[in-house]
Amino acid sequence: MALTLIEKIIANHSGNEAVKPGGIVDIEIDVRAARDFGGANVVKNLLDNGLKVHDVSKTIFTFDCNPTGSDQKYAANQQFCRDYARDNNIKVYDVNAGIGTHLVIEEGIAVPGSTVVSTDSHANILGAIGAFGQGMGDQDIAAAWANGKSWFKVPASVKLTLKGKRPANVSAKDIVLNLLNKFGANSLLGYSVELYGEEIEKLTLDERITISSMATEMGAIIVLIPPSDAIMSYCEERAGRKLEKVLADPDAVYEKELELDIGTFVPMVSRPGHPEDSINIDDVRKTKIDSAFIGSCTNGRFEDMTITADILKGRHVAPGVVLKIVPATDEIWNKCLDAGYIKIFKDAGALVSNAGCAGCAAGQVGQNGPGEVTISTGNRNFSGKQGKGKVYLASPAEVAASAVAGYITTPDQIPDVPAEFAPTGKTAAAAAARAEAPAERPMVFEGKVWIIEKDNIDTDMIYHNRYLTITDINEMGQYTFDNLEGWEDFAKKAEKGDIVITGKNFGAGSSRQQAVDCFISLGVQIVIAESFGAIYERNAINAAFPILTYSDISSLGLMQRDRIKIDLLSGILTNVENGKSVQIEKFSSVQIDIYKKGGLLK
Question: Residue 599 in contact with residue 543, Cβ under 8 Å?
Answer without folding.
Answer: yes
